[in-house]
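Cont'd.
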Amino acid sequence: MRAMVYRGPYKVRVEEKDIPPIEHPNDAVVKVTMAAICGSDLHLYHGMMPDTRVGMTFGHEFIGVVEQVGSSVEHLKPGDRVMVPFNIFCGSCYFCVRGLYSNCHNVNANATAIGGIYGYSHTCGGYDGGQAEYVRVPFADVGPSIIPDWMDDEDALLLTDALPTGYFGAQLGDIDEGDTVVVFGAGPVGLFAAKSSWLMGAGRVIVIDHLDYRLEKARSFAQAEAFNFTEFDDIVVHLKKATDYLGADVAIDAVGAEADGNFTQHVTSAKLKLQGGSPVALNWAIDSVRKGGTVSVMGAYGPLFSAVKFGDAMNKGLTLRMNQCPVKRQWPRLFEHIQNGYLKPNDIVTHRLPLEHIGEGYHMFSAKLDDCIKPIVVPGAV
Amino acid sequence: MPYTAGEPGRTVPEEVRARIPGWGVDLDPKNPPAFPRERFDPDATGAHWDFPERQEEKWPRERSIEHKFLTPVFGTATPLHGLSGAIRRLAYRRYSEGRAAHWLLLIAGDRVDAVESHLRSLASARPDDPITESGVLSERRHRPIRSRFGRGRADVSHMWMDPVIIVGPWLLAGWLAFSLVKRVVGRRPA
């Protein structure tokens, strides 16, 4: 089969690999019909995530058709069209039965601090991902769902990570009616977090980024106020002024590890890999939220320590809530919101390319060329 | 204003409710999104086992020492090999996830892996190609100048480092190879 393969930092190519076999009785092999490149794939691409091995196939956002199932699979059969959440989870461990699917204890031998994720380094279990023609899907009876007939393929694809994660960010904010919510990062997840904040009753939604085209999308797609932090001497002061010196009630960090707001932080994290991520956005969130407010984090950070302003968080009495999104838990409500027309996920897709061009896709997304917000790759397309 | 006891304006204007389709549909605390949240209900997950059957361990699989045993299911994407494998094996065998040494060794293993794999590729039918693998060819069709300049992008401040990091090792490897060849040729008897 053809598959994207990591060759080292900033290098990927498509090469021939064996079709993955059934390794466990509850495995399925899925023929991928569509995959996406996620902003957190760029952490791998940039060599930020520990134990990212050359030869690995990335891709935790994908949909496809079941090709083969293991002997204990009861709920899926070959030919089923499925959407697969980015978390790999067993459904029966201490964490899964409490709804913490992203924290499953039975799927990641390499770490206990994080669950299993497709194509996301050995730190997340060492599973190949879906930027390929075929992918192994463990616990096929637990993770995947059949795509409803009424659902658009691209919407289903965005339901495997970006939309539920953004929605989860707003949910973690515990938004009360009328709250002012500030979202750091206007990538796909930030855009969905901003959009979801309204559904949870926000009175005001503000989005911060440095890319004008993404801020424009925050205004048009998420109906938010949007500011470019490079136009302000100090974005925290601006946000305080904009909220009558109170601060936002809820701040959502939808940026994660490779924040671009501070040269020193960027060099020590993204370039020298001495931090688990440059926490510029997280520190802005801590500083700009009001005392007693809530900071929600679902931007992805690596396992190494980061220079976070924890003292400010303590002294302000903040509630910090964070996790990888337990995607499947979000699906029932999100299906309703899509059917009701409250959310239209694929409005954020900007680029569609064949799998064979994925190297160019990674570069384009990483370098933010051509107003790229969300690229999708299609195996077999030319 | 926070300097007095008064509540800041929390009334959501009708204009907002009218403008946002679905505004407030998830506001009711009795009907939270993502229910069932933290509800003990193993039947709801689709699992039909108490403890999953164990995947066959076809080679010694590294694991975090914070785990009691090898998890019943694990990835088999890229087994350990070579010097990078030895470094990673040490990180897993010796240090818990709570130790910086664990993660820094893994990062070091990644860098060694990249060099090892690159050298190995030079002896293969398909050596690494710095042009296609860096994706730099996408520049020509995707507005490279307009995307970067005059738009206030914060990452411009560190963008200059990226080519050094990407191209630098290739130049260094080329220089080393050239020096080696020159030295070998220079040693030939006249």
